[in-house]
Every structure is written in structure tokens, then in C-alpha cells.
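User: Here's a structure from my thesis project, written as C-alpha cells. My advisor, Dr. K., wants to see whether a designed sequence matches the one we expressed. Can you design one independently, without my sequence as a hint?
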């Protein structure tokens, strides 16, 4: 019994805390759903249902991610991260840090450019039908065009980085078997 308690405490030392894990998995689900909705909506007729409804949910998810990523970064700076059970090699560590930095940057960039497109274009800024986010940009179709272009191009980058992130998880679980995924479970 005592050994089980010591072992459980030791395992906790190598895991992110409950809040960090909850933020990670809930944001992952929101981002994957927002990507899927954005892709589906892109192939539907403009200005009609179900495209409009899908985009309302897409925007709501994106702006929720924006708020959560700010909170997540602040909490991560405050709380830090747990140690690895096995140290990563220098190249793996560099790849991990670079991919995570890019993911965080994209978690900020995507909703900001989406907001820029919608706000400057005069489109809705919904949050799950409960309220509209404030419109902080003037109506400017040139700015809206830039927001749309940046958002569309970065969407393919985030899809690629998310796929790379998932591939890295599979590699750590199936090939390396080094317990990296256990940090986030």
C-alpha cells in the first residue's frame, strides 16, 4: 500500500497537472472540430445553410480557443512543465520545442486572422448563439481580404503541424515507448 502511494506520487511528478491536461485535450478537440467545420463549410454554397451555421460554430470554437490559449500560456508560465521520465535527445528536444512553439503561435494566429476577416468584413462574431464579440475593427474589405487570405493559408499549416504532432505521439508510443504521452494522460 505504501509502495503504491509512493509510485503514484512519483508518476504524478512526470505528468502535467489536471488543469493543464484538461486544457490540452479540450482545446485539441475544439481545434480539430474547428478545422473539420472550416473544411466542410468551404465546399458549401456561400450565404446559405448549413454553411452559415457551421461557420457560426467554427467562429465560436476559434474565439474560445483564443481565450483559452492565453489562459493556458499564462498558467504554463506560472506552473511550468513536468520532467520527462527519459531525457529527450537534443534533436528530438529541439523538434518538440519548435513544433510546440509553432502550435501555440498558430493557436493565436488562426483566431486573430479569423476575427480580422469577420470583423472587418462586417460578418457575425458569435459565441454559440449567446452573444456577439465586440467589433474592434472598422468595416474595411481590404483588411477583411487580408484576414481571409492569412487565415486560409495558415489553416493548411496548422493541419500539417497537428498531423505532425499526432505522428510524433504515435512515434513516442509505438516506437520509442518512452512514456511521453503519459505526461498528458
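Assistant: Designed independently from the structure alone:
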Amino acid at each position: 500500500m505504501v509502495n503504491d502511494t509512493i509510485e503514484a506520487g512519483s508518476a504524478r511528478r512526470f505528468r502535467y497537472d489536471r488543469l493543464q491536461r484538461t486544457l490540452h485535450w479540450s482545446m485539441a478537440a475544439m481545434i480539430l472540430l474547428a478545422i473539420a467545420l472550416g473544411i466542410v463549410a468551404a465546399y458549401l454554397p456561400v450565404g446559405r445553410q448549413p454553411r452559415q451555421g457551421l461557420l457560426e460554430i467554427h467562429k465560436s470554437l476559434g474565439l474560445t480557443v483564443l481565450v483559452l490559449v492565453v489562459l493556458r500560456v499564462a498558467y504554463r508560465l506560472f506552473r511550468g512543465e513536468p520532467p520527462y521520465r527519459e531525457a529527450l535527445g537534443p534533436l528530438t528536444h529541439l523538434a518538440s520545442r519548435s513544433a510546440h512553439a509553432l502550435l501555440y503561435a498558430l493557436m493565436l494566429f488562426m483566431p486573430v486572422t479569423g476575427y480580422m476577416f469577420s470583423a472587418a468584413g462586417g460578418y457575425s462574431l458569435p459565441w454559440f448563439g449567446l452573444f456577439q464579440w465586440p467589433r474592434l475593427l472598422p468595416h474595411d474589405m481590404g483588411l477583411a481580404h487580408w484576414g481571409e487570405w492569412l487565415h486560409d493559408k495558415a489553416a493548411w499549416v496548422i493541419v500539417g503541424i497537428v498531423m505532425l504532432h499526432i505522428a510524433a505521439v504515435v512515434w513516442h508510443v509505438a516506437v520509442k515507448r518512452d512514456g511521453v504521452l503519459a505526461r498528458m494522460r
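When you compare it with your expressed construct, this may help: The chain has one domain: 2-184.
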